[in-house]
Structures are given as structure tokens and as C-alpha cells.
Write a structure and sequence with these properties.
2 domains, globular, alpha/beta, 7-stranded parallel beta sheet, Rossmann fold, Dihydrodipicolinate Reductase, domain 2, 18 strands, 7-stranded mixed beta sheet
Length: 393
């Protein structure tokens, strides 16, 4: 199996490279716009299995060259590049995965399903932790029910260590800033709609040590696909994040200061740079430096998916709790719940385990139980709790 990983020097991309080699002995072409950083990833993983290359994903000719002889392209770059990379993969007849199109991008990508089918390829959209694991949990819960009413998704993260330091996102800073400045999409009464930023405030109980958290609607890909592909009468789909307090304050401040802006600023000396590009460069350097650190801090990522509906004509609910801690033995962070799912999916695509063709979300093509077992091998724990009503009259 040969996999091209685009964005391989990022936090998630680098961990995906590591999992592909460790779990599947894959040959990996690790691509990034910064060759120096991706060489470090190859060196720290397995130089015999990982070939670093510099690649600008917007360069169609360079993408076509990089895709030659590849079974799957795993896109771990920013979601803004999804259409460029997916189009190149379809044209080359190569299977494709990404980490999500941030709702609107996902809807645009789905329009290319006929093109992908005609090329004989499968493009799996949003197969990280969330979207990704959450979609598969929703599909698993729907399989347990006769009809579905609600699919309510929550996520949070944190650490046991008390700290007043500014939070660092567990995923792309660009995505965080967009979440703080763009209207979320939800499904309400069977129809997609946009709602105000950070609306829908509610409390939800997550596993300890997180406990009860306050969560808000955030723009995400799951509501763009789940009601349509899961069916069964699904009326409501929503995604909420319970930001840790220090993280929430930091991200909100950055958004309010204008760091989500893509408008170039003249900073003197003929140099222009947008606030978003500037903070992205800072974040990318911070991630690269963090990989060199030997400091071990206990951290966790938690997901919760509540699927409610009816079973045998009575109310029922299926809840999935997904727990991931940093792995002190391997040094991998809890963010591996985002890097492992595309690695599993790449292997399933390359080996023919996924047979459906076209542009598909995870709930439409990932078999939940074997997927959950693969996650468990990497210490990503998925627990299912089924609550069914009974009547004795």
C-alpha cells in the first residue's frame, strides 16, 4: 500500500504518517509545502518507509506528479484545499480521504460524486475524530433503532494538570478561528439551517475528569450529511463543542482581534500578510517545536453522540462515549483520534474493504464495529450505552 499524505508536517498529518507505517507497514509519500519540516517527520518515523517531498497542493501539475503510483491520497491539509486535492485525486484515479469540508465545503464536494464514480474511486469526506468517528457513531446508533429523531454530537478536551496558560488548539488554528466567526449549520425538523455563532448553549455530562461542560453550536460537517445519508426519519442533527475555559477565552479573543481575517495588511517595508496567515505560521512552528519536547502532560479528547428515536415502537436512546488519552509509551497525543481514522480508511480503501464508489461521508461507507475495534487497538475507546423503554401493560 502506497499513500500520499498531504500536509504531513502538521500535527495530524505527522501522526497519520506514523500510524500508516506502524499499523500497516505502508509506504508513505509525506508531502508538505515546507520540505524541512516534512524531512523531520520522515526521520522521526521511518526513513525507509517515508519519502519526504515538497508540494504545493494548489499546483495541479505537481499534484498529478505526486499522485503517480499511489493507492490513496490522505488530505491532512487545511480544508480550504479539499476541492483542489480531491479533484486531482479523481482525475488520477486515486482514492481520497480528508478531515472535513467545514459544512459548506462538504456540500460542494458531494456534488462531484458522479465524477468520482465514473473514475472508479471513493472519496471519504471528514474521516477524522469529528467529523469522522462521530459520523460512524451516529450510523451505529441508527442501526440499533427502528427510527431516528435526534443525533446530538458533543466534543471537549482538556488536561488533568491545572493551568492558567493560554490554550493551544488540538487541531488547526485556522479551523478554530473559522469556528469562532462563521455561522454553524444544523438540521432542525428535517431541514438544514444556519444559526447564530456560539448559540444553542447547553450543559452536557462528559466522562471524568471533564464532567459537566457548557457546549455551543459550532460550524461542522456532520449536520451537512448525516440526516440525508442515515435517513430513518432523522429530524435533528447538531454539533456542539464544550471548550475548556482557558481555550475558549483565548480563541474568542483572537477572533475578536481579527485574526480570522484573510485580508492582507501592510506591515511596512513592502511586506503584506493577512492576520490568518501570520497566526497559522506561528502555530505551525509551535507544533513542529512541540514534537521535539519530551515533556509528558496528561491530556484527553472526549466525544459524545446521542442517537434518540424508537425501538419496537417505544422511545430509545443509544449513546456513544469516545475517550482518548495521550499515550505516554509512544508519545502520541490524544489528538491521534483524528489521525488514526484516515489511516484505517486508507487501508480499507487500498485493500478493497470499502467497495462503494463516489463521494461519501463516513456514515455511508464505514462499517462501525470493525472500525471501532481498529480504534481500540490504538487505545481510542468507544463505549456504547443502549437505553430502551419497556411497558408491562
Amino acid at each position: 500500500m502506497k499513500v500520499l499524505v498531504v500536509g504531513a508536517s502538521g500535527q495530524i498529518g505527522a501522526m497519520s504518517v506514523s500510524d500508516l507505517v506502524a499499523s500497516y507497514k505502508a509506504d508513505v509519500v509525506a508531502a508538505d509545502i515546507d520540505l524541512r519540516r516534512v524531512k523531520e517527520v520522515a526521520k522521526s518515523t521511518n526513513p525507509n518507509r517515508v519519502t519526504p517531498i515538497d508540494l504545493d497542493a494548489r499546483d495541479a501539475k505537481a499534484m498529478a506528479k505526486a499522485l503517480k503510483g499511489v493507492d490513496v491520497v490522505m488530505n491532512s491539509a487545511w480544508y480550504e484545499l479539499n476541492m483542489d486535492i480531491m479533484n486531482a485525486a479523481i482525475k488520477a484515479g486515486v482514492h481520497y480521504t480528508d478531515l472535513g469540508g467545514f459544512y459548506d465545503g462538504t456540500l460542494r464536494q458531494l456534488k462531484l460524486t458522479k465524477k468520482a464514480k465514473d473514475a472508479g474511486v471513493t472519496c471519504v469526506l471528514g474521516i477524522g475524530s469529528t467529523p469522522g468517528i462521530t459520523n460512524v457513531c451516529g450510523a451505529a446508533g441508527a442501526d440499533r433503532l427502528d427510527s431516528v429523531k435526534d443525533i446530538l454530537i458533543y466534543c471537549t478536551w482538556g488536561t488533568k494538570a491545572e493551568s492558567t496558560q493560554a490554550g493551544m488548539p488540538a487541531y488547526s488554528i485556522r479551523t478554530v478561528l473559522d469556528e469562532m466567526t462563521q455561522e454553524p449549520g444544523i438540521v432542525e425538523n428535517g431541514r438544514k439551517k444556519k444559526v447564530p455563532i456560539l448559540s444553542g448553549e447547553t450543559s452536557v455530562v462528559m466522562p471524568e475528569p471533564s464532567g459537566e461542560v457548557v457546549a455551543h453550536y459550532i460550524k461542522h460537517s456532520e449536520p451537512a450529511t448525516m440526516a440525508d445519508f442515515i435517513g430513518k426519519g432523522t429530524k435533528h442533527v447538531s454539533f456542539r463543542i464544550g471548550f475548556p475555559d482557558t481555550d475558549f477565552a483565548t480563541f474568542k479573543t483572537l477572533a475578536e482581534l481579527g485574526f480570522a481575517s484573510e485580508k492582507p495588511l501592510d506591515i511596512g517595508g513592502g511586506c503584506k500578510c493577512s492576520p490568518k496567515d501570520y497566526i497559522t505560521a506561528m502555530y505551525t512552528d509551535a507544533v513542529a517545536n512541540a514534537r521535539k519536547s519530551t515533556e509528558a502532560v496528561d491530556e484527553y479528547d472526549y466525544l459524545r453522540v446521542d442517537v434518540t428515536g424508537r425501538k419496537d415502537r417505544l422511545p430509545a436512546r443509544c449513546t456513544y462515549l469516545v475517550r482518548t488519552w495521550n499515550d505516554r509509551k509512544t508519545g502520541l497525543s490524544s489528538a491521534r483520534d483524528t489521525s488514526v481514522p484516515p489511516s484505517i480508511t486508507a487501508n480499507w480503501l487500498a485493500t478493497g474493504k470499502i467497495k462503494e464508489r463516489g463521494v461519501l461521508p463516513p456514515e455511508a461507507c464505514i462499517d462501525p464495529k470493525p472500525f471501532f475495534r481498529e480504534l481500540g487497538k490504538r487505545k481510542i475507546r468507544v463505549d456504547e450505552e443502549m437505553q430502551v423503554s419497556s411497558k408491562f401493560y
